[in-house]
Structure prediction request, 432 residues.
Amino acid sequence: MSNVNNNTNNATKRYQNPELFEQLAIEYAVGSMQGRAKKRFEALMETHFYLRAVVDAYENKFASLVELLPDAQPSNQVWKNIDAHIKASTTTATQEEKTPWWQTNFFKQGFGMAAMAVIVSAVLLLNPMTITPEATATAYSAVLESNSHDAMAVTKIQKSDMTLSIDIMKKVNVPDNMELTLWCHPKNGGMPMKMGTVSKSGKTNIKISKKEWQEMKNVGSLAISIEHKGDNTAKKPTGTILLQGQLSTASL
Amino acid sequence: MEDIYADLLQKTAAGDQLAFKKLYEETSPKLMSLCLRLMRTEALAEDVLQEGFIKVWEKADSFSPGKGRALTWMSTVIRNKGLDKLRSLKTKAAETEIQYEGLEFASQDLQPDNLEDVSQDLKGLMACLDTLKPDQKECILLSYYYGHTHQELADKMGKPLGTIKAWIRRGLEDIRPCLT
Prediction:
């Protein structure tokens, strides 16, 4: 058992070397990684989200190769099957929504009008026509790039543990009297949210409040600036922005 | 080149079934072509295409236009479905009924008359691949389009297994700086 743990730990350490995992990520994306190496790498991707992010980036690069392929028409049955599946799943969802709530004891006991008001409000709020990915998001992610467009850090924000995790993959040089500060910038402009200080290398976890989580749907980008150590007064970046990237919903 | 499918995919994410149907009609021929090369039988290719499009419907909200093009996102979803299926079925080359062996479709240089039809992403990728030796480029493209194992590539190209592994590894090492 301890050998297994040691092997896993050693493998994990190896994959924290950016040069190595970038090479493995590109091999995985192309499809040339095989057998046990591929299974091992997939297991590590489950726990190390930066590996997943780098693989995603390379998969995206190679996926444009599909444009070169000649067209091949699938049979009509394929769409019929897809359509039937979608309609069946939509019908099931609708039936679940149509639970006979008016027959419940809760309603019979005189709380009907209050319940109806709550349900009407919920229907208005959760109307499928108005649901956006942000409205239903349970996680967000962002890859932060340097000014020369090198991917430097991966950020994940999860509702499940109300944590913002940032992993600086390539060490950032910071003078001794300075520190790195993470900011969330709203999509529509305005003052950013200051999320806290992050380590110049490796992983930093920042607990977020319920209010900060709710604000994430309005955040467009993340940025890391260099600030004077211990200066807690700044409401927006005062130093150079070293890294930045777009925030998007994630299915993690 | 504008991402003509991004809008349809975003409407799909919002539950618009008509947009999804149009997206299917527009993109399925290219994606079927990819499935045929990976799966090598029409029935398996159609299975993967079907499962892949259902996943596209279910996961469309995780597409982010800022991260890439809609077609590339969809082809990644569907190709990964195909690779999973290949692994579970352990399909052998001998069982194939469709003989797609070559890379003719990818071997022509991008000429001025078809430059408008391809994305900047593809032009950039092809420029990177063109810096490799022809054998390295061929191995990488065969891995991508056909999901060939190293052994299958060695058999197909009549080269020792070690040579194939080295070509691919060094080829990918060499183009990495170009891609980033």
In short: The helical segments of chain A are 2-15, 18-30, 35-47, 49-63, 76-97, 105-125, 133-136, 210-215. Chain A has a mean pLDDT of 76. Chain A touches chain B through 50 residues (CB under 8 Å).
